[in-house]
Design brief:
about 750 residues, alpha+beta, Rossmann fold, eight-stranded mixed β-sheet, four-stranded antiparallel β-sheet, 10 helices, 39 strands, disordered N terminus
Length: about 750
């Protein structure tokens, strides 16, 4: 459910966008009928938590290796694929999705810019299944392919995809992680950029690898999970990891541990912490970052880079969890910290690395109405990323000159989502990306010498990337307690508000993550059929800063799905749609959102899509990725923790004889974040309980993992075609009825 980058914790969220429309017809069962798989047998286990008895009728499904369970998965998936394949209009929809997806010659993302005008990026050609890594020495120079995951995929293996990469500071080498079949169980490879020669060794157990090169480029730091021995519980999978220093061309088993669990008496790390180490540009300092599960607040240490070979590395703490720091960057001996301590919408403060004092740190950017999301340093200035009323903005604070220390707002060419593509402390200016609800992503360069922004040639565009007939509305839906919940509504210009529009409402609401504006041409396959795509910015996300996050966390989690319900009601009340034409969707931790919405208000939705959803929150900490998520959801080991996880657990709130909407549940058999037994148990319980007669289907990706993460192009296109045709069938849309 969550992964860790170099500077901050980020969720591996798979955002699934919507599809199609027309007028009404009542959905019917497929004819001739397919033979449905048998219902899962009930073998109830009763647990007691602090005096509360909790029934679990499908506990045996947690043994995913059991032949009976595997056979049940296969039967359910075979049936689901057969049902979806026979929906009229599904194949035409899939063809249109593919056409839109391949409309640009390539998709470029994950950019890096190094001194000397070296540009690294991932690119997927329209005809290709997955991205590859390229380099070019100059923004208009010819590109060179340096990493092709197809070439490292063994015969008969699921396709390998790239998980992460890091070039050395001098651009001479590159370390990257790749994994098969959506597993995210990455193996690190190292390559010489000039020759394309791979070094002979690889490094396994590198799910969170995070390679970070020393300034001289001769070695890199990497996080490696502990080796799982026979008999170890699966919950040990993400515990006691260690940061090692690796010299390319040497045996990884001889790498020296430099940071992590039981490595240094100077550093306090518990088994569930996730450590990383990395330098920062041309700074003389090396940083040790500790992520505490999925908690956003970090602990940070520093030591001189020159001390890395010391027997006892002199790590010194810069900030701890109580300082509530979520992001940082460095300029010389100064460290700039993003913190919500006493500032729910965040502030930026500065202190010295050599003599840190957070309590007396200088406020560089005070808290305001805009939420501060990130900072990055270039040679000329500190760049600050903001979210202001749903619109991304950038501040620039020069280090020198007449305006040194004064925040200046950069005028952006597009109102929408903004992110830092490439800002390097050794290079002046910034590369950043922009997108909106009706504009595909573009990459821009800011030149501080001229104060000008120009669109780069790095990202090619296709004929459907900037539709003029797609509009977005930003409204606020009153929730049950009077809180106004931001709601984005995307649709075709001139939409009739008559309650007949097929509508897909998406929501998430965990970890302080925001669902920012974003456009993919494939969305047109939904919108051009009259479909409405809406996003509920529910509590638990970060749209209004840390306060908004905390209002949907732990014992406040009910606000998340009730905000979603309120957003659905707004769409109905304002005639965008009706319950017969409304579908809800949640992905990953958003499974809580959609799951509890349909268990609390099943009458409000015609259909629901639960993508790799967190479903049995009472038992989630028994899975490999469960313990790291305790800070966000709670634990069944304490009375209040149990109260929280039980209330948000969809599986335990399904009631027999209830008319539930049609539900499509998805999982990837290699999912390392939400283990497949959670969607499976949810599916089995819904099939047994619903009285509506509507289909409850399980779609399994046998060469996939956590939703859209690490999917091939075709897998993604087929998933969307299945989801959207399922919705249109259930909405009674002509052309999708048997």
């Amino acid at each position: 459910m969550r992964a860790l980058s170099k500077i901050r914790l980020l969720i591996g969220i798979a955002l699934i966008l919507p599809t199609a429309r027309t007028l009404s017809q009542s959905p019917s069962t497929l004819s001739p009928p397919l033979t449905a798989p048998p219902r899962a047998p009930v073998r109830t286990v009763v647990d007691e938590y602090f005096g509360n008895k909790v029934e679990d009728p499908y506990r045996y499904m947690e043994d995913l290796k059991a032949a009976e369970v595997q056979a049940w998965f296969k039967a359910q998936n075979d049936y689901t694929r057969g049902v979806l394949a026979r929906i009229p209009g599904r194949d035409a929809l899939a063809k249109r999705i593919k056409e839109l997806d391949e409309s640009a010659v390539a998709r470029v993302y994950d950019l890096r810019r190094l001194p000397g005008e070296h540009y690294f990026y991932q690119k997927r050609l329209a005809s290709e299944e997955m991205g590859k890594i390229y380099v070019r020495n100059g923004i208009n120079a010819p590109e060179k392919l340096i990493v092709d995951p197809v070439k490292i995929t063994p015969a008969g293996s699921p396709s390998f995809v790239l998980n992460y990469y890091t070039p050395s500071y001098d651009a001479s080498k590159l370390a990257y992680g790749a994994s098969p079949g959506g597993s995210e169980d990455a193996v690190i490879h190292t390559i010489d950029v000039a020759t394309g020669r791979e070094f002979p060794e690889t490094i396994d157990r590198s799910w969170f690898g995070g390679p970070a090169w020393l300034p001289d480029g001769h070695a890199f730091f990497h996080n490696r999970m502990q080796k799982m021995l026979p008999g170890m519980p699966v919950t040990e999978r993400e515990q006691k990891s260690t940061v090692y220093l690796h010299v390319p061309g040497t045996d990884p088993e001889t790498d020296r541990a430099v940071f992590g669990y039981n490595v240094s008496t100077r550093v306090k790390i518990v088994p569930t912490d996730l450590p990383f180490a990395f330098p920062s540009g041309n700074s003389p300092w090396l940083f040790g970052l500790i992520g505490h599960g999925v908690q956003n607040e970090i602990t940070l240490y520093a030591t001189p880079v020159a001390s890395i070979n010391d027997r006892d590395i002199p790590w010194r703490k810069i900030v701890d969890v109580d300082d509530e720091v979520t992001a940082f960057d460095v300029h010389g001996d100064d460290i700039y910290l993003v913190s919500h301590k006493g500032a729910p919408r965040f502030k930026v403060v500065r202190t010295s690395i050599g003599n840190p004092d957070f309590a007396q740190a200088t406020v560089v950017v005070p808290e305001s109405d805009a939420v501060i999301r990130n900072v990055a340093t270039a040679t000329d200035a500190l760049y600050v990323q903001l979210l202001d009323g749903g619109i991304g903005k950038i501040l620039r604070i020069p280090f020198t000159g007449p305006n040194a220390g004064v925040a200046q707002k950069i005028s952006l060419p597009v109102d929408g989502q903004v992110w830092f593509d490439a800002i390097d402390p050794r290079v002046s200016g910034a590369l950043f990306g922009l997108t909106s609800w009706n504009r595909a992503a573009s990459d821009y360069a800011y030149d501080p010498a001229t104060n000008r922004i120009t669109e780069t040639t790095l990202v090619p565009h296709g004929p459907f990337d900037f539709p003029s007939d797609v509009v977005a509305e930003e409204v606020r839906a009153p929730s049950y307690d009077g809180t106004l919940v931001p709601l984005s509504i995307v649709h075709k210009k001139g939409l009739a508000l008559d309650g007949s529009n097929p509508t897909l409402l998406d929501g998430y609401g965990s970890y302080g993550i925001t669902l920012d504006p974003y456009f993919d041409p494939m969305m047109l396959a939904w919108i051009e059929r009259g479909g409405v795509y809406a996003v509920a910015h529910v509590r638990g996300g970060g749209e209004y800063g840390e306060g908004w996050h905390l209002a949907g966390k732990l014992l406040n989690k009910h606000n998340t799905w009730r905000d979603f319900i309120a957003s659905a009601q707004y769409l109905i009340d304002h005639k965008y749609t009706s319950p017969a034409r409304l579908g809800g969707q949640g992905t990953s931790a958003g499974g809580i959102t959609i799951g509890r919405a349909i268990t609390e208000r099943p009458d409000l939705f015609a259909a629901a899509i639960d993508n790799v959803g967190l479903s049995d929150v009472v038992r989630v900490e028994e899975s490999a990725n469960g313990v790291p998520n305790i800070p966000e959801f709670g634990t069944n080991r304490t009375p209040k923790g149990f109260q929280a996880v039980y209330e948000m657990s969809t599986y335990h709130h399904i009631k027999d004889g209830t008319a539930y909407p049609a539900v499509l549940v998805t999982t990837g058999i290699n999912d390392p974040r939400v283990t497949p037994w959670e969607p499976a148990k949810l599916l089995a319980r819904l099939q047994a309980a619903t009285s509506s007669g509507k289909p409850v289907l399980l779609r399994v990706e046998y060469e996939g993992g956590h939703g859209g993460i690490a999917m091939t192009k075709t897998q993604w296109e087929q998933l969307l075609a299945d989801q959207w045709s399922f919705l249109l069938w259930q909405f009674g849309v002509p052309g999708f009825q048997p």
